[in-house]
Specification:
The structure is a single chain. Strands 2-1-3 form a three-stranded antiparallel beta sheet. A two-stranded antiparallel sheet has the order 4-5. The chain is of the alpha+beta class and 112 residues long. It has one domain. The longest helix has 16 residues. 29% of the residues lie in helices and 14% in strands. The relative contact order is 0.14. Strand 4 and strand 5 form a beta hairpin.
Length: 112
């Protein structure tokens, strides 16, 4: 099964602006400015205040017309190498630049 398929098959939940898990993702009544959705494991790893913060950010930016709004730092969702969602680990520690991904590649300047 492809990584994208695995990502989409996770249990995604909707977070309301007070930080509560309000049901399955896609069940928001406001279709023009929907609530924040997160994988259940990530949503449960955040405090209620952190969930509320990322949901309010999504609502605030969505009301200005933005369709894609990044999560707050605490609510970033990262994929582990084994295919699962990384819970509780800061996102920035997983991505250490292209050297971590392509360790066998070196930058080279070609002169022609």
């Amino acid at each position: 099964m492809g990584k994208l398929k695995e990502w989409l098959d996770e249990d995604w939940v909707r977070i309301d602006s007070s930080g509560n898990i309000a049901g399955p993702c896609g069940s928001s009544k406001d279709k023009k400015n929907p609530d924040r959705c997160l994988p259940r494991s990530k949503a449960q790893s955040l405090s209620k205040g952190q969930r509320a913060s990322t949901a309010r950010k999504k609502k605030r930016e969505g009301s200005k017309g933005k369709t894609v709004v990044a999560n707050t730092k605490a609510a970033k969702v990262a994929k582990a190498k084994n295919g699962g969602v990384v819970v509780g680990a800061p996102y920035r520690k997983l991505n250490k630049g292209c050297g971590a991904v392509l360790s066998n590649r070196r930058k080279r300047t070609l002169y022609t």
